[in-house]
Amino acid sequence: MIIVNIERANFKEFNERGAFKVKRKELIDSSHGSHRFYLRYYEVQPGGMTPYDVHNYEHIIIVTKGEGSILTIQNNMPKMEKIKEKDVIFIKANEPHQIINTSNNVLEFLCFRGVDVLYEKEVSDIIKKYFNLSQEQYV
């Protein structure tokens, strides 16, 4: 068992692919022995944003402080949704998204995600074969 205190974990600058004014705490990941899930804590300063991102894994965001917006695509058009403290956001695999702090206060959130291996083709093929599922049933 691993116990991590959010307050004691250290923030690291997060500058991947256009992230701006963002820090991140790695709460649970492979360095803690987790092979299936990651939990991270983000801090986004006013005017800051995470990368505009798309990946093959699902994740859940829980806003713990502040407010802002999330950019996504719906019906092939960009769409901004307001987010605030206590909102829980489910982002599907391959769904474009970007968190933007549109407020004058700090925005903080937890991000829980599965590791890439959970979504690799080999794993889905094994699951489909094991449960004797067609492609339509699996999706």
Question: Would you give an account of this structure?
Answer:
By secondary structure, the protein is mainly beta. It has one domain (12-138): Jelly Rolls (Sandwich), CATH 2.60.120.10. The protein has two helices and nine strands. The strands form two sheets. The chain has a six-stranded antiparallel beta sheet with strand order 1-2-3-9-4-7, with no helix packed on it. It has a three-stranded antiparallel beta sheet with strand order 6-5-8, with no helix packed on it.
Question: Which key features would you list for this structure?
Answer:
single chain, 139 residues, mainly beta, Jelly Rolls, six-stranded antiparallel β-sheet, three-stranded antiparallel β-sheet, globular
Give the averaged pLDDT, no decimals: 87
| Broad structural category | mainly beta
Number of strands: 9
The succession of helices and strands, N to C, reads EEEEEEEEEHH
Looking at CATH, which topology would you report?
Jelly Rolls
Taking the sheet with the most strands, its summary is: 6 strands, antiparallel
Q: Oligomeric form of this entry?
A: single chain
CATH superfamily: Jelly Rolls
The strand order across the widest sheet is: 1-2-3-9-4-7
User: What CATH first level would be assigned?
Assistant: Mainly Beta
Tell me the fraction of residues in β-strands, as a range.
35-45%
Number of domains: 1
Radius of gyration: 17 Å
What distance lies between the first and last C-alpha atoms, to the nearest angstrom?
Answer: 33 Å
Low-confidence stretches: none
Q: Percent range for helical residues?
A: 10-25%
Assign an overall shape. Answer: globular
